[in-house]
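Purpose: get a first structural picture of the assembly so the mutagenesis plan has something to point at.
Setup: four entries, given in the order below. No constraints added.
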Amino acid sequence: MNKGRVEAFTDAIVAIIMTIMVLEMKVPEGPSLKALFAERVYFFAYLISFFLIATTWYSHHYLFTHAKWISKRAFWANCIWLFMMSLSPVATGWIGAYPNSRTTAGFYLLVYVLWGLAFRLLVYSLIRDNSESRQQLQLLVQPKRSIFEMIAIVACLVAINFVPVLCIVILGLDGLFWIVYTPRESDKPNH
Amino acid sequence: MNKGRVEAFTDAIVAIIMTIMVLEMKVPEGPSLKALFAERVYFFAYLISFFLIATTWYSHHYLFTHAKWISKRAFWANCIWLFMMSLSPVATGWIGAYPNSRTTAGFYLLVYVLWGLAFRLLVYSLIRDNSESRQQLQLLVQPKRSIFEMIAIVACLVAINFVPVLCIVILGLDGLFWIVYTPRESDKPNH
Amino acid sequence: MNKGRVEAFTDAIVAIIMTIMVLEMKVPEGPSLKALFAERVYFFAYLISFFLIATTWYSHHYLFTHAKWISKRAFWANCIWLFMMSLSPVATGWIGAYPNSRTTAGFYLLVYVLWGLAFRLLVYSLIRDNSESRQQLQLLVQPKRSIFEMIAIVACLVAINFVPVLCIVILGLDGLFWIVYTPRESDKPNH
Amino acid sequence: MNKGRVEAFTDAIVAIIMTIMVLEMKVPEGPSLKALFAERVYFFAYLISFFLIATTWYSHHYLFTHAKWISKRAFWANCIWLFMMSLSPVATGWIGAYPNSRTTAGFYLLVYVLWGLAFRLLVYSLIRDNSESRQQLQLLVQPKRSIFEMIAIVACLVAINFVPVLCIVILGLDGLFWIVYTPRESDKPNH
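Result (structure tokens, whole complex):
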């Protein structure tokens, strides 16, 4: 497919998902710091979700610079990944409204996991159609990365039973780790 | 016209339509699975609409890679198609709110049919201005495809009288069929 | 400036303005044709505004294919034009809610006129910096076109005093006239 | 990184932030000039925020035409800058709703300052990775500019104690000054 167009379409959807979460952040009711402070949990959840999406966009950018060819299969994997990501505003709004609930934290985690699985599907589709870049593309599904993700998810599952909102703290730290850890050369290809 | 710019403009509109449907999915009222479960019909309608739009985008991508020239006529057909698609969030929201109503299901079907007719108009406009790609462009309006669409619409009309919400199930299966059935080579041209 | 980037930025804003008007179209309250019918005025106002924006986009596309150079001055004229256009959803929502009011119709007309003046400013800025395309660019501010616009505005001003909502009908017909009348060759340049 | 894609992604986010502020401008309640007039403060705040974002976009465009290389570091600085900007709709909505409050004006100023600091971070990241364009990039963080910004912020801090809403007037004038004062040649590079 026309890679540039698939990228532009994907980017538009990602950009909208990132910013419609701001719409959920209500204008504080009353001109007081207290009213502003009432939004702190949602603000924090928004902050985490914003940067988790930016992290995944960075990986998507890395993938697409190494993949020469976007097949029909990869396009649909990309759509599934976008659909899962589009549930992020609802999950963020829900945990922001009820941060002390196992249900809302569990739902946030579920969306995160499904979204991650869809990303894996995308990576494998791209590998299958771009065998010449197999080595670079596989970096995103290397065992070290998978194990780390697994540990983060288990940590979330445990934390949810004590302090549910810790779930987004852990996922945020996980994202931060990947932002820092990703090799510097990951920004090299530029076509 | 500048094909790249028409594509980018179209993609931005399609991306927004796909994602504003998420805004209609309210944050559940209360931190319970029951509150989440109350959204299931809208969620399902959103899922179908999201992938129906993605399917049509895939066809649009196919068309525009084969069409060298976008005329004024084709531009306006494209706008009519976008306008019909822009009614999708309202139709989705309405059937999601009242899934057991013939009226809401009928409206969803009506929007779908008008949107399909506008797509046909776009295909014929492109064929008229790009006779050298006639063969590839015509694939999207081949009799087999038209008959299949017709059958799906009739099935919807019948189903609406018994279980209205079946309408989106049928259209969803129809979309899924086209995702799978579309020849693999449809992703080949990449300019 | 980087013309491609200014175009893409402009297109994203135009696309969002066109589609957020759909958000104003509420999901009908109740599963009846009557509830749907209650939205008819807003629907009609949305239809007109959607195609007026598409018409102006077409002209913008024509301008930018002929202008080689986007100066700082032209960029700011472009921003003023975008700002005026961004008032369109409010004007559309207001006349849709109160179609029998001189105030709402007058406001819609005012936004339309300011938007048109901003477009003129953009055309003159582009002419000043792209003298080699003066002839093609001037087509959009030729006397015939200006007189026609003037007549439409006067007709609106008169109509508002009798049947306010006629204002959008007249502007809609005006837009339709320009869609049809614009010379076929206006789609020729494609860079 | 792929500069074109980072630009397009950034532009989509900026465009959405600029236009979702329109959603906050409610359709006036009632068909009277009085109802329209009740929106005047928000309208004014929206006008200022719209053009402040456009001004910063212009600077971003200048930066990215001079920077050949977008590193991982610059990408994250860009994301922080986008995140700060995304708080603009809430700050604008809040000061629009309560213009006579020191808290809302102070919050608007705080968002503006954080946003400016994030922009500085972006400029320094780009300078570090594009030493060959150091001279052009440094123009945006030259002492003259910094001192001017400092004065504007101090003026805001003073004004907030007397007439809070003056804060956005001062920032608006500050933006206007930079629109006019930016050297004409800033639009020259076009790649």
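DSSP finds nine helices and no strands in chain B.
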